[in-house]
Amino acid sequence: MSEHDVNPPADGAELPAEGSAAFQRLVEARLEKMRELGRAVELYPYSYERTHTSEQLRAAEPELTAAGAVVRVPGRIMTKRGAGKTLFAPIQDEWGRIQAYFKLDTLGEERFQRITRLIDIGDWIGVEGTLFRTRTGELTIQVTDFTFLAKAVRPLPEKYHDLSLELKSRRRHLDLVMNQESRERFKKRSAILAEVRAFFGDEEFLEVETPVLQPLYGGATARPFTTHHNALDTRLYLRIADELYLKRLIVGGLERVFEIAKDFRNEGMDRTHNPEFTMLECYAAWWDYHGMLDLTERLLRRLARRFGNDGVLTYGGHDLDFERPFARLRFMDALAERTGVDLMTLDDAGVAAIARRHGIEPRKGMGRDKILDALFGDLVEPTLVQPTFVMDHPKELSPLAKAHRRAPGLVERFELFCAGFEVANSFSELNDPFEQRRRFEAQKTLAEAGDEEAQQLDEEFLQAMELGMPPTGGMGMGIDRLVMLLVDTNNIRDVLLFPAMRPERSGGEGP
Hints:
- 34% of the residues lie in helices and 23% in strands.
- It is an alpha+beta fold.
- Strand 2 (81-83) and strand 3 (86-93) form a beta hairpin.
- The two termini are 16 Å apart.
């Protein structure tokens, strides 16, 4: 196995499986080179003075070339090719690659042998020299000196396509080394978060922080993760939502607040769900869900203009138009259209029968409205491709929302759907502490019947509400799904640097 040769492996060559004898021989060969290097250079220097990134070199090329300026650029060696007295080696930094050109006549025998024989693909070096263009037009640094910066003891895979989604998600550092697209996707995520924060700043919302560890979980219907605080000798929960703490701030007189925070739900995983996720929640006094609907539309339109094409996003082969007013659809009307039945007129048994007719078997503890929600998820959600506000949900699904002012049995709520999945959720927030207590009691009954996702009765929150909570609109938005939409990927693991993964078996997959 000639992984250490100057020339790269032939097309289709594969790295031996990790843990195999062949893979271990590659590692041992690199360690031997490292030991030999250590007799001549510092193996792990403390710093390196960079003059330019690869991106800055490309932008400033005319001026730098005309001036004959000496540049210093660090990066990871990604390939090596050459023979005899010359060597070409593209080096990679965060912004891309720049080719480095090494010549025996310039460097001398000892340093040239060091770069060709002892320094491997994957190693970090810093190169110093002047810029020129090769005969093929590639921007290149003619190296007059170089500094060894760090050894890649473990070899890189030969080809990026050899990395499965499983391996890319499990070993994100390897994915980022091999894939410029991944680096750009996560840099775009950072830019999206910055734009969201700028939007809420422009809307005069105050960014706040609330506890991750909570004595009671609430604000959503989900199973929590549980932990124990040793000093307090008490059970605590990782928050499933920020809602109940943010509403306390509204009670306290902060009229517009938002938080971008990690939430945790101990539930299933699929292409749009991860147990640890990033959530945006915002609340505004004196608003109802109509005000939040307008705010949400403005936010999505701004993001589509910034990260799309004139307000149009391409996702999964569809052009999603955020410039036009978003469609609006009532929850029960959509179900009636898909089932041919006015489900508002049916009792629990009737709704369960309709669900079974459509291949949904109600689980133990599922109330009528939970069954309606399951029907909606199967029959309606996949059809909602263009931005659509689904409005006015059954009361049981929304124990923190105000009753609909004109439709008994429903609440003032909307969900925003795009490309077949939910992006945002909003209420006219319930601010009657007595009604809120009744809703919590109803949730308690559901829990006793076996619903593991029912909300708990939070006495401290009720006491805060009893101090007086003004009319309030609230909205929650899954940041991970929002990023999925804006970068055009259908799997949440593509937008999470470190998604939750099942523990790896002994031996692992790949390097």
